[in-house]
Model the fold of this input.
Amino acid sequence: MEEKRPSRLRTHSYAELAKQRERAGIYHADPTEQPLMQLELVDKFFNLCRANSLWPLTFGLACCAIEMMALGMARFDMARYGAEVFRPSPRQCDLLIVAGTVNRKMAPAVITLYEQMAAPKWVIAMGNCAISGGPFAGEENYVVVEGVDKLIPVDVYVPGCPPRPEGLLEGILKLQEKIAGSRYPFPQYNPPRKDK
Amino acid sequence: MGTTIPLPPGLLRMVFTAVVVIALVFLNSLILGYVERKLAGRFQLRPGPMEVGPHGILQLMADAVKLLGKQFIIPQAANSPLFRLAPLLAFVPVGAAFIVVPLSQKLQVRDLDVGLIFIVAVMALNMVATLIAGWVSNNKYSLFGAVRSVAQSVAYEIPLLLSLVAVVLMTHTFNMQEIVLSQDHIWHVVQQPVAFLIYFIAGMAETHRAPFDLPEAESELTAGFHTEFSGIRFSFFFLAEYTNMFFVGSIAVVLFLGGWHGPQLPFMDYSAAVWFLLKVYSLLLIMIWVRWTFPRVRFDQLLNFCWKYLTPIALVNLLVTAVVVKL
Done:
């Protein structure tokens, strides 16, 4: 066993804090970080709208990205929830879907993209690689970042290798729940179909 | 405004007009944005926005509010005053161009004698805003997008104007209302089909719609000239694009498709706006249809198509028109 060397990986300053909060079960921001003026109703309305217009970044890292694309296509269609607007520029996005393995070489780029996004912004870690390194996690691993939550704060984890498009859709619905406080933030026009 | 109603004082009328015009600009963008996303879905065999309101009709509202609440980032290397100004510069002229659009015989803000020149000139200002936006962002993608946009606009403005001049030769006027009135028997599209086609293609290129959306080509240039813009200022560019589409459609309808002429309705002086808007939105529907059907052209193809085909054909068409009018 060689001695443990300090990691030279650059991480986002909120990443560790977000993980601690997640473990402690705190999902909302620190009260000391709240804005000066609080208008509850306006906030609720804004959150409702934010939850229903999550524009993801066009950003695929590995095979999970194929499933992400499938979610945008005809069979699954994330457009139903207003999330189909894949913006190529991080400035115009709300949602970073980390779809795939994050290498140490890619890590700075992921952090840069996250920092370039305009607040409020959210992150979904999609697939086992993005959650924990997946099949690449191990003692002899020297290149894969074991979990993108080491780099940036993650809101929703979608497990699977790769997760099916339904899985990612469920992740987006969970994120809507987290933002707006209820599962289907907008009153549903079509009632959920009952199976026979 | 009708002569039977006593006209309010000039200032009041101006404020009223400004409010109505801005409301129309936003309403038009909301409708077009929704229709575009819904149709994009339908063309790709998916339902499109469904969950926000019945059939997703509130989707654009949600997007607009979200964009309003987003952080506005000004890059450190950008020129801050111009960076703040550019989206407004893209947005304000399109409001001004509404002044001369003849929605019906009496629903027109100002009946300028040079209405056609005015609307074309004001629409061309959009290019300046694009150039400023791309340049002051201090980003290579933005600059490339802006440069492409200018090259494209300069090239396509020539066949566009030449095709319009052919109609002006026939009607002897630049006044939008008189051009409409000259089509009460036969629409100019019957007499000038080539000019109409050239105008429509060049108009699509003018508004940077696919397949001519090279200034914001996503696969090459990230988001083109508005790469660095976030939040509501980014949406101003979208508003400008959709409103410019509306004007391209309006000019086509006024010059070629008989303006507000249509079957008789009660209060035709005002209600003819229904026919006008119906024609404009059918044209815009075709533009959306084209966008979601064809792949993007290459830049040399774009310019070659303009200089080798559209411009010579437009010139020949103009010459033939002039000869026929003279005979």
Notes: Residues 40-180 of chain A form a domain with the Rossmann fold fold (CATH 3.40.50.12280).
